[in-house]
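Re-run with default settings, no changes from the original entry. Doing this only to confirm the output is reproducible before filing.
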Amino acid sequence: MRRVETDMLNAVFFDLDGTLADTAPDLAAALNDLCIENGKDKISFETIRPVVSHGGNALIRLAFEYPESSAEFMQLRQRFLDIYNARLHNSTNLFPGMTGVLAYLEQHHYFWGVVTNKPAWLTDPLMKKLDLSGRATCVISGDTTAHKKPHPEPLLHACRIAGCEPGQSVYLGDAERDIQAGRAAGMLTLVARYGYIEKHEDPLTWNADGIVDTVTEIVPWLEQLNTEND
């Protein structure tokens, strides 16, 4: 992992699915409803969970064999999103311990926000249901800017809204593109290994500034980093 000299951190940005919130139960249920509609067997939750962070296309590829460019694939993807939207927050909650992390950030006057590739029409109602809409400094969705992660533009836009410098910010995510985007934006990056990471993926190769195995490790990591930069 790289070593970066940074000023005192004052902003923390989170990926949404698999980092801030455990959305996999609702996404898996939506995918299995789609499978049943199309005469296919359900897929185990253990198989679906690691794929969630790769988005809707990856989930459709997991269940169906149509090429992404095909009309059948696009129809399945739209139907999947419609089913998911209908049950967007039936079983979704913040990861255990995340409530305490957000409280710590607010008590210590950090800016915090969400940067996700999820489209706003799904992100915004989910954030509202989680009672976070009025607390987050910013919520950047996959269609907020012209580019999605791994492009740095969404993260740079988050910094502009928060009024902070990328070098004073950390981005926490559970996918390699999260780390790529954070690094390209000039932020510190932290891997949420408790999130949705496939068995063949090795976060140690992503060149992040740190890795946390549990949510409870986030605050100590931030405190240690700020102590080193006093």
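Residues 1-5 have pLDDT under 50 and may be disordered. The chain has two domains: 11-22+93-228, 24-86.
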